Structures are given as C-alpha cells and as structure tokens.
Fold this protein.
Amino acid sequence: MSPTATDIGSATAAHPYLTGLHTPMREELTIEDLPVSGTIPAGLTGRYLRMGPNPMAPNPEKYHWFAGDGMIHGIRIEAGKALWYRNRWIRSDRVASALGEDRTPGPRHLFDTVNTNVMGFGDHAIGLIEAGGRPVLFGETLETRTYTDLDGTLRGGLTAHPHVDPLTGEMIAVCYDAATWRSIRYLVITPEGRVRREVRIPVRHGPMIHDCAFTQRFAIVLDLPVTFSLTAAIAGYNFPYRWNEGHKARIGLLPREGDAEDIIWCPVDPCYVFHTVNAFDTPEGGVVLDLVVHDRMFWKRTCGPDSRQCGLERWIVNPIARTVRRVSLDATAQEFPRTDERRLGQPYRYAYTMALTDPFLGTALFKQDLVEGTRQTHEFGPDRHPCEFVFLPAHEQAEEDEGWLMGFVIDAAAATTDLVILDARTFEGAPQASIHFPHIVPPGFHGNWVRDAQ
Ligand SMILES: [Fe+2]
C-alpha cells in the first residue's frame, strides 16, 4: 500500500527532517522471518513498537518534525525468532482519506494526528500524542483500531508521556492543550484504564509540557518557557510553540491526591526539558528529579529542536524553602533517557540515554550509573545511529540492570536498520542480537516492548 502520488522528495530537498535519514517512508511493508545475528533471548515473547512522524504530503516551508503524520513500526518476537516487521501509518482523517479508507472510529479532540509514543496499556497497545489529541488503540498487526476517550472518562486529550507507578499500577499524566492556554490537567488513570482523578492547574501562556515525573508523594509539573505562539499559528506553522522570554520557569510539586491550591511551585532558571528520567522522595522530605535539560528550545529554528546545549542533571528540590538546586550529572549532550520502570518514583541507580552529536542523533548509547557517578558507552560506529533504547528486565525479580536494552539502530551507509538487543550488564560488549531489515526506519520518538497479553 502506498500514499497518493505525492513526490515528497522533489519538494523538500532543504528540510533536514524530510531528507536524508529522515526521508519519510513511502510504503507500508510487511516483512516476515527477519534475519538475525546473535541470539534473541528465549524468554522474549511480544512486540517492540516504535512511533514517529512520517508525513504523507508535508509543506516543507511550514513542516515541523514534531507534527508529521504518525507511523508505527513493530517487530514481533517469539521463541527466539523475529517473525515479522510492519510499519503502518496511524489512520488520522487525513491519512485515511489519502489512502482511500473509511474513517477510523472513536472520539477525537482538537486534532487526530498521533505520532509520539506507543506503550502497552491493558490488553492493547496505545498510541500517544500531546497538545490535546486523543490516543489510539492498535490491533495485533498494528492496524489503527479506534481513537479512545477511555470509556468517556478522558475530557480533552492525553499526553505523550504518561507514567505508570509500578507500586500502584496507576498511570499519572500531565496534559496540556493547544486550545487552552490558562490551565493544564493532572490525571490519574486506573489500571483498568479510566480517569479517576482530574485536577485543573492554572498556568499562563499555554506552556508545552512534554513529560512529567512522580515520587510517592508528588506529581511533578514542568512549567517551562516554551509556550503557544499565536503568531506562529497565524503564520501557518503546524507546530506553533516557541521559546518565550516572558514566561517564568518553575516546577510544581502536586501532592498526588491534592488539589491545584496544594501545588508547591519552585522557580528555576529558564531552560527546557523534554524528558525526565525518574524522581523520588528523600528521607529529609525533599525531592530528587533527574532529567535532560536544554538551555533553551524553539528559539530560532521552526523545523525542529534547537537548543545550544543539553545535559543530564539532578534537581534537588526543597519543598519548604521552594528552592531547586541543579547538579550536573553529565554535561555531554544526550537525550531519550530511559530507566528500569519498576523503579519509577523510587530511588534507583541506572539511566540509559542516547548520545547526541547532531541535534537529535548520535552514534552511541550511554549507561549512567547514578550511584557511582560513572558512565559506560556503547559505540555503534560512525555511520550507525541508535534511536531510543528501552530497558526490559530479564524476569520479574531481576536486579536493576539485569535485563535487555532494545532499540533501532540505523545504518546510514548500508541504508538498513537493525533492532538491536544489548545485555545491560555487558553494555559495552557485542550485542546479544541484531534483527535486520532492509530499509531505513526514519529516526522517530518513543518505543516500548509490549509483552503478550499485556
Ligand atoms: Fe518524548
């Protein structure tokens, strides 16, 4: 299957997110019995799913990497074999219409592009977007089944980065909406998939809040100076968020069962954060928040991220004094942090990040030992570009780094992609397995391992 005849290549020569490795795929592929180097761990049964933008007919003058039509990529693994690879566009109205298909059922809110994250959720894989869009549910072979409002409990959109508390099974989300500039929403979603708590939090300027974090006591809100730009929206940019010098940077500690008036706001220096790693309470009553911090964002470029520097930091928050002490953990540019999600909201030791040399691409992964303060590097080679890697524990009782890291690695010279599985304990060593497919999967955003019957 392919999109309607639109010559993407000729129209977009100068756009960095429409050319080179980012050239959108033009077809939906199904490739069975993929070749494998090494040995896929026998206990892995499920699918690795990864989401990213793959625009069908973008206007290169206004296109932003974050706003393209979504595509899901998936690999089915079972009994040590890679049974299939599939890529499928998410059937928004625009995509379904271009493909000549029926409209995807389910309730929309604001817009219906979904392109940022995919995770297991109840019995389904759920595709996620922020800024007011609602999630979609996928079928086993990655077909877009339906948009969802969580049985009528989700008023408005969700977020690309909800986090499940492993101790309660509940999902925590901080949601913003491109059409609502004076408030954001904190949601608690039950393991059964219904919103049980919604707190509307007053803000100014419509901040873009990409991620959140939580401890056992608090949900953490990142209210930072990237905000909705009416000027950019009127000018026709499909991603109308810009650096805003007039927006006061702060983080909020919201007691998890508290209301908006209970939130403890703490000022921080202007900066931007896409992704948190983790957070936890300290015995002294403080909060530790680990995150990747950009010095600024969306201040010049209108097509993608444009910070001048970024690094891994630990923010030590004193809720009584309302202060934040910023400690640099690693000033090397890196992004897409992941950790063992059984430790979310609790003290932990390891983080895994992607080294950045290009604005959002590099050739290495880092394993950060936050207790010892050391870093290991897995270097893939000059033409090989890893994307986000997710950590999978080897088994339920596995220790924190006892397990696998899994993610795409694009080989720019060979124009191929591997799904690479690393042993987290022998991080710098040869991969445990590499599953090969004969095309470039454009760099995207987030992926997860979705076990069967999850
Ligand atoms: Fe993200």
Q: What stands out?
A: The chain is about 5% helix and 40% strand. Confidence is low (pLDDT under 50) at residues 1-12. The first strand starts at residue 30 and ends at 32.
